[in-house]
TrEMBL record:
It is a multi-pass membrane protein. The Tat system comprises two distinct complexes: a TatABC complex, containing multiple copies of TatA, TatB and TatC subunits, and a separate TatA complex, containing only TatA subunits. Substrates initially bind to the TatABC complex, which probably triggers association of the separate TatA complex to form the active translocon. Keywords: Cell membrane, Membrane, Protein transport, Translocation, Transmembrane, Transmembrane helix, Transport. The keyword Signal does not apply. This is Sec-independent protein translocase protein TatC. The lineage of its organism: Bacteria, Pseudomonadati, Pseudomonadota, Gammaproteobacteria, Pseudomonadales. HAMAP family: TatC. Part of the twin-arginine translocation (Tat) system that transports large folded proteins containing a characteristic twin-arginine motif in their signal peptide across membranes. Together with TatB, TatC is part of a receptor directly interacting with Tat signal peptides.
Length: 261
């Protein structure tokens, strides 16, 4: 004898949408994402030069008096601020982009999955922003101070604006992604790929992996490598803690469903 499905067993959207409707909805969501980026770009671009000055402040403040940054390419004074404005537009529009993705996949999720998915989505945005902020306010002053202090005497440091921009964007991305470790850890636990106990047992290997990743994603100096590896390890520990809580949260709806059958 089979029991009738209820709201906890099947997603709210009972009827399967035809493929063409899924594609149309996906197109509409993508257009909204692009529109959000375009609106942000239109608002940010007029201040692109000022934003570049703010972004380059950590290294400009360490240059000797009378020295400044240079542009080795004729087009760099135009394209460097333009690239920065475009990247910042995507950066600012991330909440809208993730919300559109959430709205697209949410109808296919179970009730208890929705209860966990949205907090994970919201937390992932905050963690990415936190990683970028950590790179700018903590890592950059230390790394640039180290680089400017170890140079040979008689060498004039004139950082190129395009090279600097590429470097800091890489660092923003590296730290933003690294700060997503708790989310990845929780998802691995929720999908059953591993357990909190297994992850805790592999802690020594994870610590080594954090330093290897720090070595690969940051400049070849021990300061920036450590500043990336140590937060990654701490965030991994938080991921285990939140993974245990999330596992307990999902176990309760599953138990209720089993009892109701």
């Amino acid at each position: 004898m089979t029991s009738k499905p209820d709201g906890n067993h099947i997603p709210p959207d009972q009827q399967e949408m035809p493929l063409i409707e899924h594609l149309l909805e996906l197109r509409n969501r993508l257009l909204k994402m692009v529109l959000a980026v375009v609106i942000c770009f239109a608002a940010i671009y007029p201040f692109a030069n000022e934003l570049y000055l703010w972004l380059s402040e950590p290294i400009r403040s360490l240059l000797p008096v009378g020295q400044t940054m240079i542009a080795t390419d004729v087009t760099s004074p135009f394209f460097a601020p333009l690239k920065l404005a475009l990247v910042l537009s995507v950066f600012v529009a991330i909440p809208v982009i993730l919300y559109q993705l959430w709205s697209f996949v949410a109808p296919g999720l179970y009730t208890h999955e929705k209860r966990l998915a949205f907090p994970l989505l919201f937390t992932s945005v905050l963690l990415f922003y936190a990683g970028a902020a950590f790179a700018y306010y903590v890592v950059f002053p230390l790394v640039f101070g180290f680089f400017t202090a170890i140079g040979p005497e008689g060498i004039v440091e004139l950082p190129d604006i395009s090279s600097y921009l590429n470097f800091v964007l890489k660092m923003f991305f590296a730290f933003g992604v690294a700060f997503e470790i708790p989310i990845a850890t929780v998802l691995l636990i929720l999908t059953g790929a591993t357990t909190p106990q297994d992850l805790a047992a592999k802690r020594p290997y994870v610590v080594v992996a954090c330093f290897i990743i720090g070595m690969l994603l940051t400049p070849p100096d021990i300061i920036s490598q450590t500043l990336l590896a140590v937060p990654m390890w701490i965030l991994f520990e938080f991921g285990i803690i939140f993974g245990r809580l999330a596992k307990r949260e999902t176990a309760e709806p599953d138990a209720d469903e089993s009892a109701g059958e």
